[in-house]
Design a protein that fits this description.
single chain; 123 residues; mainly beta; 4-stranded antiparallel β-sheet; 0% helix
């Protein structure tokens, strides 16, 4: 599976962005998809994940109520809609795919990674 993230950019606080992650390869619909982010000097942290079946979703507390995650299996694409953005959301955002049955929140539980897209939120 190859992943290509896009949609990052510069936005003012309170604004919105939608990130996309396009996948290539077979069996996309069976993978758990996740979004992570990494700010300078910080560890990569889980943001949101979506299962392949329900689809059930899970969010980090820091983004709950502001971000939504969705997927289109026919287009092999997962989306992260980010609303009410804050300066602390500034980071490089990565999409990832996991073979696990449930939504993992640790980076080592994901098998494939995209290249990352920069999100910068100005105050």
């Amino acid at each position: 599976v190859q992943l290509q993230a896009s949609g990052g950019g510069l936005v003012q606080a309170g604004g919105s962005l939608r990130l996309s992650c396009a996948a290539s390869g077979r069996a996309f619909s069976t993978y758990v998809m996740g979004w992570f982010r990494q700010a300078p000097g910080k560890e990569r942290e889980f943001v949101a994940g979506i299962n392949w079946s329900d689809p059930s979703t899970y969010f980090a507390d820091a983004v709950k109520g502001r971000f939504t995650i969705s997927r289109d299996n026919a287009k092999k694409t997962v989306y992260l809609r980010m609303n009410s953005l804050k300066p602390e959301d500034t980071a490089v955002y990565y999409c990832a795919a996991s073979n696990r049955m449930v939504i993992p929140t640790t980076p080592f539980s994901y098998d494939y990674w995209g290249q990352g897209t920069q999100v910068t939120v100005s105050s």
